[in-house]
# Entry
Amino acid sequence: MLRNRPRASFGGMEPDDYRRISYETWEAMAPGWERRRDYIWETSRAVGEWMVRELDPVPGDTVLDLGAGPGDTGFAAATLLGESGRLISTDFSPDMVEVARRRGAELGHRNVDYRVMDAERIELESDSVDGVLCRFGYMLMANPVAALAETRRVLRPGARLALAVWGPPERNPWAAIGGRMLMERGHMPPPEPGAPGVFSMGSEERTRTMLEDAGFTDVRIEEIAVRFTFNDVDDYVSFAVDTAGPFAMVIRGLPEGERQTIEGQLGEAFAPFVADGGYELPGVALAAVTS
# Structure
């Protein structure tokens, strides 16, 4: 049974309105994620590899990848499943699913099913998969505890979930600095308690509690450090516009003068992270495995 929890706030929106806007946002992000796929994977490769290693899939297993985006974490598992195994690569954005499908074809994977799927309403039978992966997905969902409970429902007894979310904002300046700047200049509202977002599961305590609320009783969480490198502020802004969800949508809609002002402020804020003629912005992911 789920514990009594305060209702998540969506900035005045109903949950279904949030889901609709999130869907539209990630459909719009799909082309950028395809262009930046190599960079995204290489930057967070340690996270994806940790997840697959802890999931420990074996030939013949069925593994479900939720919120798969371009699909790389799941593809790392697919190579271990063999011809008798199956990866189900899913996203709630149809365009993201097509990005993954194209990448899977490039890699020659023949043991992958591609499906449009809402993680809060997983269209699979109970006790039907041997493992679930979700890299940076649950934190953005309208009801992550419902999605986690659905995850537990479809896992076979003793099967594992491996997930990753971003840690707290003070340890992720690659995302926090730009978001804070947009809030200070009135372009984005401050995050509300319980609202989905990049840092909504940013503490080990909160992530563990949400997993336990969903019925998982054996949870282990580790921190994984990453580094985002950029040639200059223009490179950072270009990456953000291509990939950064709600942040990207705000930047895309700014007048040119305001965008230039923000870029100047970013240059000042990034000064502590100068390295090799560009910037190295640190980040920390929380990676969890359950059984």
